[in-house]
Amino acid sequence: MRERPDRRRRGLRNSVSRFEEIVVPAEPARLGGVREELRAFLSAGFDDETLGEIVLAVNEACANVCIHAYPTGVGSMTVRMTSNGRSVSIEIEDGGRGIAAGAPSPGAGLGLRMMRELSAGCEIVSGPSGTLVRLRFEPAVGVSDGRPG
């Protein structure tokens, strides 16, 4: 039996606006489940290439939580997905140690650069009580079926 992450759905099934939140332990083994939930949420509204880029960017943000947020133990991460019919916003939040200003990055910051390049908008807010990464994505031109995007 496969363990499912804590899922909360809000909003009307037939409305254009949709929201989903999942909370999982910040462990690399949980990233596959996050990717599955993300693909299910974005099941329409994005071409395969764009969907792959979204999943890659979100996976990178989640992997950063697993690697950097909780150096002495395991905490949790929250992934919030919101669609308003024109774009999708995805937030990845942790309650870890935050990103220290000027701290050397073992990955040379390539993942952060990639998230910025793959998204239509990338905002990172970090402090001693955690980090929030907010990514925004827009559908390919011509997609207007009212589903995510």
What is the compact description of this entry?
The protein contains 3 helices and 6 strands, in the order ββααββαββ.
Secondary structure topology:
Elements: E1 6-10, E2 18-25, H1 31-41, H2 48-69, E3 76-83, E4 88-94, H3 110-118, E5 121-127, E6 130-137
Antiparallel strand pairs: 1-2, 2-3, 3-4, 4-6, 5-6
Helix pairs in contact: 1-2, 2-3
Characterise the protein shown here.
This protein is of the alpha+beta class and 149 residues long. The protein has one domain (6-137): 2-Layer Sandwich (Heat Shock Protein 90), CATH 3.30.565.10. The chain is built from three helices and six strands, in the order E-E-H-H-E-E-H-E-E. A six-stranded antiparallel beta sheet has the order 1-2-3-4-6-5, covered by helices on one side. A hairpin with a 7-residue loop joins strand 1 and strand 2. Helix 1 (31-41) packs antiparallel against helix 2 (48-69) and helix 2 (48-69) runs antiparallel to helix 3. The protein is globular. The relative contact order is 0.20.
Q: Segments where pLDDT lies below 50 for 5+ residues?
A: 1-16, 142-149
Going across the major beta sheet, what is the strand order? 1-2-3-4-6-5
Query: What is the overall silhouette?
Result: globular
Q: How much strand content do the residues show?
A: 25-35%
Global Rg = 15 Å
> Please, how many domains?
1
Name the CATH superfamily classification. Answer: Histidine kinase-like ATPase, C-terminal domain
Number of strands: 6
CATH class: Alpha Beta
Main beta sheet strand tally, sense and closure: 6 strands, antiparallel
